Amino acid sequence: MKRIVETFLKLRRQNEGGLIAYITAGDPDPAYTAKIAHVLVKGGADIVELGIPFSDPIADGPVIQAATARSLKAGTTVRKVFRMSEEIRKENNVPLVVLSYFNLIYRMGIKNFFDLAKASGIDGVVVPDLPIEEADEYKKIAEAYEIDTIFLAAPSTSIERLRNIIEYTSGFLYLVSVFGVTGIREKIHDSTIKLIRMAHQVTCGSVPLAVGFGISQPEHVKTVLQNGADAVIVGSGFVKIIEANQDRNRMLEALYVYARQLKTATVKK
Amino acid sequence: MRLQKYPVCGKYGKYGGQFVPETLMTAIKELELAYLQAKEDPEFQRQLNYCLKDYAGRPTPLYFAENLTKTLGGAKVYLKREDLAHGGAHKINNTLGQALLAKRMGKRRVIAETGAGQHGVATAMACAALGLRSEIYMGADDMKRQRLNVFRMKMLGADVHCVDSGSRTLKDAINEALRDWVANVQDTYYLIGSAVGPHPYPMMVRDFQSVIGNEIRSQFYEKEGRLPDALVACVGGGSNAIGTFYPFLDDAEVELYGVEAGGEELSSGKHAASICGGVEGVFHGMLTYIIQDEEGQILNTHSISAGLDYPGVGPEHSFLKSLGRSQFVAVTDKEAVDSFLKLSRSEGIVPALEPSHALAFAMKLAETLRKDKAIVITLSGRGDKDVEVVAKYLGESI
Hints:
The structure holds 2 protein chains of 2 kinds.
Chain A: H1 3-13, E1 18-24, H2 33-43, E2 47-51, H3 62-73, H4 78-91, E3 96-99, H5 102-108, H6 110-119, E4 124-126, H7 136-144, E5 148-150, E6 152-153, H8 159-168, E7 173-176, H9 190-203, E8 209-212, H10 218-226, E9 231-234, H11 236-244, H12 248-266
Parallel strand pairs in A: 1-2, 1-9, 2-3, 3-4, 4-5, 6-7, 7-8, 8-9
Helix pairs in contact in A: 2-4, 2-12, 5-6, 8-9, 10-12, 11-12
Chain B: E1 11-12, E2 15-19, H1 22-40, H2 42-55, E3 62-64, H3 66-72, E4 76-81, H4 91-104, E5 109-114, H5 118-130, E6 133-139, H6 140-145, H7 147-155, E7 159-163, H8 170-184, E8 188-190, H9 201-224, E9 230-234, H10 239-245, E10 255-263, H11 274-277, E11 279-283, E12 285-290, H12 315-323, E13 326-332, H13 333-347, H14 353-368, E14 374-379, H15 387-393
Parallel strand pairs in B: 4-14, 5-6, 5-8, 6-7, 9-10, 9-14, 10-13
Antiparallel strand pairs in B: 1-2, 2-12, 3-4, 11-12
């Protein structure tokens, strides 16, 4: 069975929410990504999401933009990200998702991209600038490789559109919690709760719901899970720790502690 | 199928499309619907024509450049004088159209990107005239180079946001405008300045700029009693070029030439010629020719003309290229400056550096054609803004 589906089934059995930890691959440098992934998993991450750095990340806020710049400066390429995921895979059976802007995939050739993704143990792909209207060929190829295609829904997505998106998404559905780019926000908005409820109504549990953008506190995690989400995606919170700690050992320790705090909040009472 | 029928389902052949974050999908579909309704509404067309005529000063003249024609000794050279439109460039044709649409859609806040500042100024003008609030994103490096236009925008009531990310130029200003739009899509209208971005922008901007080609058609007919033999326009994003070409797309006897910014030389890598020197990719919501590396990372571009300094190109141009309907060529900084000076001296018209690229190629073309042939060059803007840049290029202090 596919790793992502298996993970969500396990979480459901244990009555837990999932923690999906995002980092930009190759930040602060390519040699550290596997180490970071391991401490995130040790801290409780149920799925690790690796962002492939792109020169023009239009869906990202300042924190991830800066991570992208650091990673590109350190020489990260698409192929190197796949090598990082192979390295993670050697020691770990955690589901691995990559996030890539579409041009990187298009340039390499969609088929080549999935070929390499499969070989390096990738379980799912998120493409923030590929709406379902443009995704037919991509979806077909991904299916042939048995890699999950994770699509996004936003507060502006209508219920009719959401029904179509459900047809395209697999693994989980990525709910964009707010109008805006990635980044830390103070509180959970009403629109987030509304979106989770609408998605619930449409999916009836057929596909797990993961909420991302702006989630950074254990309290946020509790709120979205209580309102029906199956998992949270935390990105900028982790990336900020990487940015703030020049001392790499201290960085790994801080990532572990933060992942632990978030994971603890996913255990439903 | 007639070329004027495109786009079909938002695409020009395989080019174009809507590669944007999900958050924007509902907004661009609403925009398409609102635009198609406005297009069919005689009242909207009446308002637009009124603004173009009494506010922007249209129609602009089609001028026979007699001195230049004599010097070249070949085909007759005509200039479509967009430099005489309000604001000094063709940009106002599009900003008036889109600002009217924003108003019709009930959006009170307009955002736009600008490179050299021409589109920012044209947006600020249209918004001031129509009572809308405008906020303009501009790269930090461009703000330094174009201080005068920054002040003009402020004078016209616009807020100018400095973009400090990436290469701090036009592409980053678009990135930041897109991020703003994602966050504020419910009450904000994004007024793109060229025939680029996700559908329906390339179509909409083309339609608003087609006033250029439509006027050329009737003015040229009045003077020569036929269609021109060739049309030449510069291509950055490509809005003045597609506006020039579109009304002639299905007249196969009219040759179309798009002139890109060759910078220092195509081979040097320091250029902004997306079609001549780029490869297909997906950027800023569209599938088109992009200047990028083997990985698909977008590269920084170079051109002496800030208005052509963009790593992508409108998808309809990529389509015309694939069909062989338009020819695309690149002209260097040096050639552009030479023709900037040549037109200034021969006709007393100081062109902007952008159409100076078109001029440079058109002069070469005219020389090869018989005297009974005629070509039209779209002079997309006036060169006052470029005087400092040209002086610097020539090593003269002013």
